[in-house]
Amino acid sequence: MVLTAPAGVDREFPFSDEDFAEICRLVHRELGIHLTPAKRELVYGRLVRRLRALGLPDFRSYCRLLAEAPETELRELGNAISTNMTSFFRGPAQFAFLREQAWPALRERYRTARRLRIWSAGCSSGQECYSIAACLLAAEPALAQWDWRMLATDIDERCLQQGREGSYPADQWHGLPESAHRFFLRGRGRHAGHMRVSRQLRQRITFRYLNLMGEWPMHGPLPLIFCRNVIIYFDKPTQRRLFARFAALQPPGGYLFLGQSESLLRVSEDYQLVGQNIYQRRAVAGGG
Ligand SMILES: C[S@@+](CC[C@H](N)C(=O)[O-])C[C@H]1O[C@@H](n2cnc3c(N)ncnc32)[C@H](O)[C@@H]1O
Asked: CA–CA separation, 153 vs 121, rounded Å?
């Protein structure tokens, strides 16, 4: 007969309801992420390594540490809690929209200045940014002569580092459309099993730590913002504040791409739906 212990009894570290509630409050206040009670085990599992690394005896001590040294430990908490699932050309219909509708409109609008700024907010390990860049450059090789740059931000430092390196397991090659192959180099010799993004793309993208709940250093205008599969973890009031801030950075006609199950319905009046979870900034009332 197999005897099973009641839930929680055989834990390596004591983790009380109060500890969980405190971590939830902090994660919501600092990162915008809304953790439901169903995430309790996940939180335990993700933070247990952190407790071991710090040599702490229980979650109570971890909560105390968070209260005392939030700056440094908050980053570690962000690394541990965030879900970084991503892939190249995730949501292919959105890339078709980018190529066939958004880009022709943006090209028309910015062809004199030949300047384009893009933000991938919640970029994870960079596959999204490199897909955007490869999609645009495959559609418009002349973009290489434009002053175009992309800012890629996240709260997970390990992901950001991988994005900067632009090196991925070679089995991710199968997610690339043929038109994007030329922007990826397959590793040989000691790099076998990896593929690396070409310098042409890497040099235009800056990966930076940015907590969407904190200060933003950029001023806009940002005609293209991707914030996909990030707000799914945010509650409605947090989403509202976030989209008001995006709207302030986008020119009328600017595009905002959201994730598959994300929508601005009852969240923002500043945008209108123009594609699959793709929104366009409305003209400012009384303005252009
Ligand atoms: C599921 S991934 C999505 C990656 C990519 N956008 C995509 O759709 O494939 C969500 C990302 O949002 C980031 N994230 C979560 N909360 C954040 C916050 N408050 N500020 C910035 N990034 C955040 C996570 O670290 C994670 O890398």
From this structure: 5
